[in-house]
Design a protein that fits this description.
By secondary structure, this protein is mainly β. The chain contains 1 helix and 12 strands; from the N terminus they run H-E-E-E-E-E-E-E-E-E-E-E-E. The protein has a 12-stranded antiparallel β-barrel with strand order 1-2-3-4-5-6-7-8-9-10-11-12. A hairpin with a 4-residue loop joins strand 2 and strand 3. The longest helix is centred in the first third of the chain and has 15 residues. The chain is globular and about 55 Å long.
Length: 291
């Protein structure tokens, strides 16, 4: 059975039995907030993302991340990630070849988040975020590839209704460098480096409907710019939107978000969706515990 269901059932059962008061405020599946851990505190989070659907054929990819984050100071937080992935791809044209990989080590990454201001009833919360990473498996194609990336993010948050309603927005730039082999003749190949940049704006609105439950909506605009060092020319884009639910109890937190693609481009005449770098829908589950 799908690993997300097992994980959700186990952790939700433990959390529901936990009698401690609710932990900090709203959380989203894709949108980051400017909150940072207290100095000396540690939080461990398991991320699981299911991406599927490319129009024709079969496309199913799952991304898994184990994150350990720690508060360094009142404003600075550091994190480390170990990333895994699975891909099942068949019957698709273009650059997507047949791949059948159930589970594999994908790479590692690290994060620094610096909070410039805390969100309040009268003020904005603002943080800056940087995450360098290394990967050995292409996220979309599922093929082996050496990739370096640097995710840069600006994070905004505003609270309303005495903190019961939270709005957060992220603006993200992510340049990537991919090292790959290109076949030029029988038995001969050469190495080349592809450069690509993604730009994303993500926003979310969440309302505390009960002492431990937050219900909201998230939306993402994601676009791809190839060979960005020679000018910015957008190759494709997609817009996602859907519901998010966050449950918090004591040191435990669970967040689930489903984001279908609403529209994108360029697209085929019979569809309004973009499938080269984007999927029909994404489903993300995050389970975290503070120590």
């Amino acid at each position: 059975m799908f690993v997300h269901r097992h994980l959700a059932a186990i952790v939700l059962g433990v959390a529901l039995l936990h009698s401690s008061p609710s932990r900090a405020g709203a959380d989203f599946g894709y949108v980051y907030t400017p909150d940072v851990e207290e100095p000396g505190e540690t939080e461990v989070t398991l991320w699981a993302t299911d991406r599927r659907g490319k129009g024709e054929g079969h496309y199913q990819a799952r991304d898994y991340r184990l994150e350990v984050e720690r508060g360094i100071s009142d404003r600075l937080q550091a994190s480390a990630y170990v990333n895994f992935a699975s891909h099942h791809i068949r019957g698709l044209a273009g650059e997507l070849e047949h791949v059948d990989r159930t589970f594999a080590f994908q790479g590692v990454s690290a994060e620094l988040k610096y909070q410039l201001s805390k969100p309040s009833a009268n003020g904005w919360g603002f943080a800056l975020y940087a995450e360098p990473g290394w990967s050995r498996i292409s996220k979309v194609k599922g093929e082996r590839a050496r990739e370096l990336e640097l995710e840069l993010k600006a994070i905004l948050q505003k609270n309303f209704l005495d903190g019961r309603l939270v709005w957060a927005t992220n603006v993200t730039f992510e340049p990537e460098w991919e090292r790959e082999h290109e076949d030029i003749a029988l038995g001969e190949s050469k190495r080349r480096t592809e450069k690509e940049m993604t730009f994303e704006v993500a926003t979310g609105l969440s309302y505390r409907v009960a002492p431990r439950f937050w219900l909201g909506i998230e939306s993402r605009y994601h676009s791809v710019y190839p060979d960005w060092t020679h000018g910015l020319h957008r190759e494709n884009y997609a817009v996602y939107g859907g519901p998010t639910l966050h449950y918090a109890a004591g040191e435990w937190g669970i967040t689930a978000t489903i984001l279908p693609q609403l529209f994108g481009g360029p697209h085929e005449a019979r569809s309004s969706l973009e499938f080269d770098d984007h999927e029909k829908r994404e489903l993300r589950l995050k389970v975290s515990r503070e120590f």
